[in-house]
């Protein structure tokens, strides 16, 4: 599939879903409505970009949800109470992510196993940091996430910004080319004299950075945290990457697509609420929407190949 | 590139050795390569050419001896960094581009200075210039994604990356089977460029199984056998016969014509107009990338994509692009051999291990797979031997039709002769072969030949009508060239 075609389908699915939501609930077609619809999409979009960077180097991160929860707990406690220690902890978490990447490459370990193990580590640390739900968001974060810029809601601006920054780093920069090259043909990158260990560590570090931002923005929105706040982010982020035109192997990803994928998933939940579907059925219906979009993508790909 | 550089060699190997465990791949090789030389490296598969190349390009460190490089300023250095500083570039046999990146992004992988503002424009200019210079009229856009290109176009890109200008200009380019996926006219463009590059003071190491190309372009020929250099002389001192003899093979005799089975029934026809009789060897000819592989794939998938697994399968496939279509890279030689035959090796619903091992041993002996232990990973074999395994996988089944997609790419003369004989025997026993090949010699072995141009069949040749001249005449659009 050509890259421009790859991005067409996510855009189309988002547009269709948005049109349906507006049709069901015309009041959503407003500054306030859009902000409400997409508010919670910001941390999901950041986590999706993080997951995308991992998938880009042919790995998968099963610890995304617990890691974002851990970051949220640190943000609501240490960053709020003792900022210096808090930010040091977050920086340490990013370094830990880079170290995991280096370990996976150097010891040739399956990422799915390592990150599954790490998910328990992060979950445990989150409970240690914040045993009972609570904490408070740092003032500046709260102000930032609830800001009301003129004309365009904060959520939309933030999503566009995440897509833009992701695109610049991953698709346009020469560093991003190396990382995608690692996913596309690791041998050829290594033959050219680059260190795969260093590259994979950088990819994981970059993913860790986006995941930290996801946790922080989440606390900015919810004003409090708990150790299980973002557990569903693991699967949401993977689904978002795939929905956005990414592929599990071969370094074929799209940051813009990933952000759109995250928006689509958030919107799908709202759409189902507007349909007044019982919450028992919502998760299943969300899955059905996912399968629908993926099937459409398969048809697209087949058409493009023919 | 100027001619005023000091006259020291670009690369010097002094008693270089390399062992993999107990296997000695390269034994005390001493070799120097000077500027302006086009050195052809010949020898059959497993003779140590790839190992030698990997020592020169820094992918492997020698177990003994030294490999040193002469820098433009007269310094002599060693190691991978030294190799890059000396302007040594390698174009590998197995295609080593990143398929998910664009052409210009692939140039970024080896070229370290492509970074910061405007690197894309610079990269596009460099790769565009190189492509224009080597393959005029190539039609490859620098922003095209490599995965969308044909095999031939990818090889062209890879070669162009090898010759592209950079912060360190190319001074020695190693080309490992560079023409294996190219058709004759594009291969000629490459050979012309190599001559120009060497005339301007560059050097090339050229590895090829195509004798014509070696004699056409090389100024010096180095013959390798069993990890040693057994001959190192200027090209003019060799003839085809003495060169083949030096490599340790008997020259393959002229293809003996055989009675085509005219009387047997036509067993297959495809929408494109391919037809074949039982026991016939049918060739698909024409320039590379004109729809032959696609026609084979359509036929093969049409015959075998069924809900039910049939035994024997209606057709089997021998891949030319081994890494993409053929090998199970993590499996052993034995598992790779038995794959297509598995439905016949089942006892009480489980794979009969002993029968499987027997099958693999039988084919090891029949087709001459060079390995002590068939439980070794498939990637421990050299390219030619991997290809033999793929042949064995297909021929081990009882499928009536064998589809071959340019399977002899980068395979040595000895293996080829052996496989040709085997194909002949199998055809006489009633098997039908559909054979796409980029090598004219192989097409001449066929009973019936279809020439493809622009995705359609433009000619059907049989018997005495199958000649190189006829194939070439139909491959090119006469009206355009006239």
TrEMBL record, chain A:
- Protein localization: Cell membrane
Task: Indicate the transmembrane segments per the record.
Answer: 7-24, 36-55, 85-104, 111-131, 151-170, 203-224, 230-249, 256-275, 281-300
A single GO cellular-component term on record: plasma membrane
Query: Can you say what this protein is called?
Result: ABC transporter permease
Membrane topology per record: Multi-pass membrane protein
Q: What's a Pfam family this protein contains?
A: BPD_transp_2
Instruction: Identify the keywords attached in UniProt to this record, alphabetized.
Output: Cell membrane, Membrane, Transmembrane, Transmembrane helix
Primary site of residence: membrane
Q: Which PANTHER family match?
A: ABC TRANSPORTER PERMEASE PROTEIN YPHD-RELATED-RELATED (PTHR32196)
Could you state a single Gene Ontology molecular function term?
transmembrane transporter activity
TrEMBL record, chain B:
ABC transporter domain location: 11-251, 254-479
The residue ranges crossing the membrane are none
In terms of superkingdom, the source organism counts as Bacteria
GO MF, one term, reads: ATP hydrolysis activity
Which UniProt key words apply to this protein?
A: ATP-binding, Nucleotide-binding, Repeat, Sugar transport, Transport
Protein name per the record:
Sugar ABC transporter ATP-binding protein
Q: Which organism is it from?
A: Szabonella alba
Q: What is the lineage of its organism?
A: Bacteria, Pseudomonadati, Pseudomonadota, Alphaproteobacteria, Rhodobacterales
């Amino acid at each position: 599939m050509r890259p421009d075609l790859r991005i067409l389908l996510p855009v189309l699915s988002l547009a269709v879903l948005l049109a349906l939501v507006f049709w069901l609930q015309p009041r959503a077609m407003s500054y306030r409505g859009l902000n409400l619809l997409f508010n919670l999409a910001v941390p999901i979009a950041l986590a999706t970009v993080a997951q995308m960077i991992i998938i880009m180097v042919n790995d998968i991160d099963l610890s995304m949800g617990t890691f974002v929860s851990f970051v949220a707990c640190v943000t609501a406690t240490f960053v709020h109470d003792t900022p210096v220690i808090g930010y040091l902890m977050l920086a340490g978490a990013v370094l830990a992510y880079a170290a995991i990447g280096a370990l996976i490459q150097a010891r040739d370990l399956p990422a799915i196993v390592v990150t599954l193990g790490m998910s328990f580590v992060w979950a445990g640390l989150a409970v240690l940091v914040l045993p009972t739900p609570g904490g408070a968001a740092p003032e500046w974060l709260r102000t930032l996430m609830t800001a009301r810029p003129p004309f365009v809601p904060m959520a939309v601006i933030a999503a566009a910004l995440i897509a833009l920054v992701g695109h610049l780093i991953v698709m346009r920069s020469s560093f991003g080319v190396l990382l995608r090259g690692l996913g596309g043909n690791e041998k050829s990158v290594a033959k050219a004299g680059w260190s795969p260990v260093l590259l994979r560590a950088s990819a994981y570090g970059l993913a860790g950075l986006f995941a930290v931002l996801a946790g922080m923005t989440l606390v900015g929105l919810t004003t409090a945290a708990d150790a299980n706040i973002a557990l569903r982010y693991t699967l949401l982020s993977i689904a978002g990457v795939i929905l956005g035109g990414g592929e599990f192997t071969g370094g074929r990803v799209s940051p813009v697509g990933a952000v759109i994928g995250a928006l689509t998933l958030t919107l799908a939940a709202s759409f189902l609420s507007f349909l007044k579907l019982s919450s028992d059925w919502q998760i299943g219906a969300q899955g059905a929407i996912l399968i629908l979009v993926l099937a459409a993508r398969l048809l697209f790909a087949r058409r493009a190949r023919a | 590139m100027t001619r005023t550089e000091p006259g020291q060699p670009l690369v010097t190997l002094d008693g270089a050795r390399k062992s993999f465990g107990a296997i000695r791949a390269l034994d005390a090789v001493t070799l120097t390569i000077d500027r302006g030389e086009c050195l052809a490296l010949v020898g059959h598969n497993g003779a140590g050419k790839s190992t030698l190349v990997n020592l020169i390009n820094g992918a492997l460190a020698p177990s003994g001896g030294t490999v040193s490089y002469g820098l433009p300023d007269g310094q002599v250095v060693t190691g991978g960094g030294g190799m890059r500083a000396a302007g040594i570039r390698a174009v590998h046999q197995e295609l080593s581009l990143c398929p998910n990146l664009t052409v210009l992004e692939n140039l970024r992988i080896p070229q370290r200075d492509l970074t910061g503002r405007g690197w894309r424009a610079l990269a596009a200019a460099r790769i565009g210039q190189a492509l224009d210079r080597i393959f005029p009229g190539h039609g490859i856009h620098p922003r095209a994604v490599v995965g969308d290109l044909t095999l031939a176009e990818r090889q062209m890109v890879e070669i162009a990356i090898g010759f592209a200008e950079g912060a360190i200009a190319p001074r020695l380019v190693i080309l490992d089977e560079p023409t294996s996926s190219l058709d004759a006219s594009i291969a000629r463009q490459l050979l012309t460029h190599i001559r120009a590059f060497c005339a301007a003071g560059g050097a090339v190491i050229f590895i090829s199984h195509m004798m014509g190309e070696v004699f056409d372009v090389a100024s010096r020929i180095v013959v390798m056998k069993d990890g040693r250099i057994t001959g190192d002389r200027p090209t003019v001192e060799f003839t085809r016969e003495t060169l083949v003899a030096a490599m340790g093979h008997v020259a393959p005799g002229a293809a003996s014509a055989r009675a085509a089975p005219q009387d047997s029934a036509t067993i297959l026809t495809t929408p494109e107009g391919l037809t074949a009789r039982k026991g016939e060897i049918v060739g698909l000819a024409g320039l590379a990338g004109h729809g032959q592989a696609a026609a084979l794939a359509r036929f093969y998938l049409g015959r075998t994509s069924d809900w039910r697994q049939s035994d024997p399968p209606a057709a089997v496939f021998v891949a030319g692009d081994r890494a993409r279509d053929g090998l199970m890279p993590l499996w052993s030689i034995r598992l790779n051999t038995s794959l297509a035959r598995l439905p016949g090796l089942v006892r009480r619903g489980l794979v009969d291990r002993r029968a499987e091992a027997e099958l693999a041993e039988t084919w090891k002996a029949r087709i001459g797979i060079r390995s002590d232990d068939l439980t070794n990973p498939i990637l421990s074999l050299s390219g030619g031997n991997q290809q033999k395994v793929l042949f064995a996988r297909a021929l081990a089944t009882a499928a009536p039709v064998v589809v071959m997609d340019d399977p002899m790419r980068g395979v040595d003369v000895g293996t080829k002769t052996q496989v040709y004989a085997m194909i002949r025997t199998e055809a006489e026993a009633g098997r039908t072969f559909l054979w796409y090949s980029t090598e004219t010699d192989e097409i001449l072995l066929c009973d019936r030949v279809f020439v493809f141009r622009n995705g359609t069949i433009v000619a059907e040749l049989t018997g005495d009508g199958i000649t190189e001249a006829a194939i070439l005449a139909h491959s090119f659009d006469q009206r355009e060239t006239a």
